[in-house]
Amino acid sequence: MFEELSARAHTILQETYSVKDVVVRWRRPTERNFGDLSTSAPLQLAKSLGKKPREIAEELAKGLKGFKGVERVEIAGAGYVNVWLEPASLLAELSSAVSACSPLPVRKKEKPVLIDYSGPNIAKPLGVHHILSTVIGQVLANIHQHLGYPVIGVNYIGNWGTQFGKLAVALKKWGKKPAAACSVDELLELYVRFHNEAEKDPALDDEARAAFQRLESGDKELEQFLQDVTKVTMADIEIIYQRLHVKINEVRGEYHYRNAMGPIIEEGKEKGIFTKGEEGALVVQFPEELNLPTSVVLKGDGATVYLTRDLAAVRDRIETWHPQVMLYVVDVSQMLHLQQVFATCKLLGWDLPQLEHIVFGRMRFADKSMSTRKGNILKLSEVLDEAVKRADAVIGEHGESIQTDDRSALAEMMGVGGVVYGILSQNRKMDIVFDWKKALALEGNSAPYLQYTHARARSVLRKAELKKEAALPKKSGPLSAAERTLIGTLLEFPDALTEACAQRMPHTLTNYLYALCQDFNAFYNADPILKAESAARTLRLALTSLTATVLQTGAELLTLRVPDRM
Questions:
Q1: Beta carbons of 439 and 413 less than 8 angstroms apart
Q2: Cβ neighbours of residue 488 under 8 Å, at least 6 residues apart?
Q3: What's the pLDDT band for 161 if we cut at 50, 70, 90?
Q4: Does residue 337 sit within a domain?
Q5: In-domain check, residue 123
Q6: 327-366 burial, b if ≥16 CB within 10 A, otherwise e?
Q7: What is the CATH number of the domain that holds 18?
Q8: Domain hosting residue 208, numbered range
């Protein structure tokens, strides 16, 4: 209908004003009483046509009246054209929302979308700040996959650098068992102790640098130590990934590129991109117009740095997967670094895909420091456990109004979901302030509200004894205001997915699901469903069924889970 209305409007304008190159766009009005669709084309064309917007609107409205599927047309304001569609037309359009609930076939001929996300540091537990990259990246991967894009998720773990020299020294001096037998918390304790001891004995830093240089030179014992530490850490992290419904295709950390940096260093020197800097370091100086500070690619002692390893990662990803775009889901503090990485790749003359930094702000928890070095990291596992504990208390407070066959499973859904949704529902480009009360509220823009609404819809379907999804009828009598509003919101689901994907903004999807919850609950309270007469009952059960499916689909794309009973 959108395409047919646009084509009809174009024909009207062409025949009336000889307009050829105009696209009439229809959108859903913010005010529900302004119709199903609205266009501001008359306002946009008025100046070029030398006509009053209202005059153009009147011509459009006259030409659209009686058009197939159009119930009525009105002019609003200075020149808006509002259209109400016939019930049958609206119901036919809902096939797009039904289709949007199923993943599209993979576009096998397209190059993949590569998404770099999570990126935890080895030998340390996941801090609460890691949840940002982890869930934002997973949601972007989920949405891209749902829309048919081939996706490669890469977990670029931090398992290289001088810190492993420090940990190796600490384990040798104070460790009571081999690395493979340590827990992540024990490894962190050793790392913190090293820094405390090094403040009293600076010679320890020299030992750490020497140990890392041996590791870079291929010392077998230290390589085994690093592999053991990596294995212990990733096993611990995988437990949290499972709770968050996170699954990343590839784990390729900095260690993977230990032998790939040399050729890039030589290439940069040959091309005159890498030159000698202070204290014998190798640096890249950027053109003045880029306004980027000089960056080190190799220290004076021959040690590599983050930039060196990131360059090796870019080249490896291009040669391995040939992506069309590489999305780096990394916080705002790395903006300059990534600008330098991307600029260096271009200076080297590499054939690059689109490189994009999916920036996100900081997450704030009052009076909680997240400094690993001082050892008072706020662990993500502790935050999730606290969320589940608080969710269980919410369930208890509501007594019989919340029903479940498995209280612990529901608390896990609500708690973990509350934390994740509380992050995703905010604009990722801004600093995120997490609020426990808002995150676990049964009303408002929260995971529990979405989960409760889904359970309410499923409850209606159970009482109707439907064994499968209710099919949409092909025709209907006059629609109630609540029915028409709900249908309009359901019709927006495909666009919400497309926009969230194109803009890389998960909160676009959360905002849509919140609106759908509100409109379904208003419909539920306004119109009888199970006790309606036959034709209306059939339609309302179908709308209830589709709402439940859209909510579940959207929730799972956001890594959430929704209960059938609550």
A1: no
A2: 28, 32, 36, 90
A3: confident
A4: no
A5: no
A6: bbbbbeebeeebbbbbbbbebbeeeebebebbbbbebeee
A7: 3.30.1360.70
A8: 161-248
Note the helical H segments in 86-202.
Answer: 87-93, 95-100, 130-146, 162-174, 184-200
3-state secondary structure of 537: helix
- Could you give the angle at the alpha carbon of 474 between the alpha carbons of 469 and 480, nearest 5°? 90
Give whole-number Cα distances, 488 to 76, 130, 454, in Å.
19, 37, 18
Tokens of 418: 């509350």
Helix (H) or strand (E) holding 481: helix 481-491
Residue 365: pLDDT band with limits 50, 70, 90: low
Give the CA distances from residue 267 to residues 274, 275, 279, 304, 349, in Å, rounded to whole numbers and listed in that order.
Answer: 9, 12, 21, 15, 11
Interatomic CA distance for residues 410 and 206, integer angstroms = 52
User: With left for phi above 0 and alpha for psi between -120 and 50, is residue 504 left, alpha or beta?
Assistant: left
pLDDT at 470: 87
Q: 439 near 432, Cβ under 8 Å?
A: no
Q: What are the φ/ψ torsions at residue 247 (nearest 5 degrees)?
A: -140, 115
Spatial separation of the C-alpha atoms in residues 561 and 493, rounded to whole Å = 18
Q: Residue 369 pLDDT more than 90?
A: no
Residue 304 has what DSSP assignment?
B
Asked if the model's pLDDT at residue 233 lies above 50, the reply is: yes
H-type alpha helices, 246-362:
261-270, 306-321, 335-347
Closest CA to 98 of 545, 564, 415: 545
| Rounded Cα–Cα distance for residues 165 and 190 (Å) | 12
pLDDT at 23: 82
Does the residue 295 lie in any domain? no
Q: Is the pLDDT of residue 162 over 50?
A: yes
Domain-ending residue, one of 226, 248, 270: 248
Q: Are strands 363-364 and 113-116 parallel, antiparallel or unpaired?
A: unpaired
Point out the domain boundary residue: 60, 85, 110: 85
**What is the predicted pLDDT for the residue at 373?**
42
Contact 128, 378 (CB under 8 A): yes
Q: How far apart are CA 216 and CA 296, in angstroms?
A: 18
Q: Which residues pair with 80 in a beta bridge?
A: 76
- Cα–Cα distance measured from residue 330 to residue 255, given in angstroms and rounded to the nearest whole number: 19
In angstroms, the CA 561 to CA 439 distance is 15
Cα–Cα distance, 280 to 302 (Å, whole number):
9
Q: Are 5 and 83 in contact (CB under 8 A)?
A: yes
Mean per-residue pLDDT of the chain: 94
State the Cα–Cα distance between residues 281 and 300, nearest whole angstrom: 4
Q: What domain count does the chain have?
A: 2
pLDDT at 385 over 60: yes
Closest CA to 316 of 255, 250, 257: 257
Q: What's the sign of the alpha-carbon dihedral 289, 292, 298, 299? A: positive
Q: How far is residue 93's CA from residue 20's CA, in Å, rounded to a whole number?
A: 28
Q: Is the pLDDT of residue 370 over 60?
A: no
Distance CA 524, CA 529 (A): 7
- The pTM (predicted TM-score) of the whole model is 0.93
Q: Confirm whether 68 is domain-assigned.
A: yes
Angle value at C-alpha 101, between 421 and 426, nearest 5 degrees = 20
Question: pLDDT band at residue 469, thresholds of 50, 70 and 90?
Answer: confident
